[in-house]
Amino acid sequence: MKAIVINTYGNEDVLNYVDVERPEPKADEVLVKVHVVAVNPSDWKIRDGMGENFGLKLPLILGGDIAGTIEEVGVEVTNFQQGDAVYGMTVSGGFSGGYAEYAIAKADAIALKPESLNFEEAAAIPIGTLTAWQAMFDLANLSSGQKILITGASGGVGSMAVQLAKAKGAIVIGTASGKNEQYVRDLGADEFVDYTRQPFEEVVKDVDVVFDTVGGDTQERAFQTLKKGGFLVTSAGTPSAEKARESGVEAAFVFCKPNAGQLAEINRLIEEGKLKIHIETVLPLTEVKKAHQLSQSGRSRGKIVLQVGT
Fold first, then answer.
1. From CA 246, how far away is CA 267, in angstroms rounded?
2. pLDDT of the chain, 310 residues: tens digit per residue
3. Which residue, among 178, 170, 121, 179, has the nearest Cα to 150 in the 3D structure?
4. What is the largest CA-CA distance in the chain?
5. Using CA atoms, how far apart are residues 6 and 231, in angstroms rounded to an integer?
6. CA 147, 148, 154, 159 torsion: positive or negative?
7. Which residues contact 260 (CB under 8 A, 6 or more apart)?
8. If phi over 0 gives left and psi between -120 and 50 gives alpha, with beta otherwise, what is residue 300?
């Protein structure tokens, strides 16, 4: 099968389109014929060298978000069958990543594709949406009526977070550049702050929860917006425990985990029209280098996806 393989860490030039052996599913796994795979910031961060910190072994196929049809099921799998249209997260590491014609997934890490979505839209859901879900609901315990600040609200994770928070009944404040204001408001944000025109911490105060998808200085300043006893959760770097203590708040990093039950809940929101997916760009798998450059620029709105097969 064809796949994008990295044999060494580095910039996008280490991404090679080559032939590799097709993987075989274990008893509790399925083999998915990949139609579309999404590009996530974690992909190019791993490619740049973070994979070594994670203990991943080269050669490596990247890509955690897939949508496609089941080609083969393991002997213990009873809830899926060959030909099912599915989406979800791949098994990490080895030759089982999503930048390939076929990929391996655990049966409890995928769900049936909502009929209302095409494969491009479905591939854009898993990691970004589960990250937002687990950050806001599992870690920060966001509830109806609470106020949340979401940084990077126009990005792949942030855009899903805005919609999920609104579906929960929260009051949502989103930050992004001014050109994305209408987009973020259309997602459901109650308030919008253009971070290029004013420091958001000067106008946002006493929020219950911050979900930071940007990191760095943005994350540091976000502590100032929380009320005492509030919660900062981030998908962009480990938050400062010292800063959290000084601010009288809690802080945590969210590491996305596969969860078929949560995907089922997300499916329900999609079918109810409460969750919409925005695709920034669709490129063929062979243009993965361009996709990584676009993702790394930080200027994409919504998700970047790669077409693999039909």
1. 40
2. 999 999 999 999 999 999 999 999 999 999 999 999 999 988 999 999 988 888 888 999 999 999 999 999 999 999 999 999 999 999 865 556 999 999 999 999 999 999 999 999 999 999 999 999 999 999 999 999 999 999 999 988 999 999 999 999 999 999 999 999 999 999 999 999 999 999 999 999 999 999 999 999 999 999 999 999 999 999 998 999 999 999 999 999 999 999 999 999 999 999 999 999 989 899 999 999 999 999 988 777 778 999 998 7
3. 170
4. 58
5. 38
6. negative
7. 88, 107, 108, 109, 110, 111
8. beta
How many CA atoms does the CB half-sphere of 227 hold within 13 Å? 7
Whole-angstrom Cα distance, residue 132 to residue 22? 32
Whether this model's pTM surpasses 0.90: yes
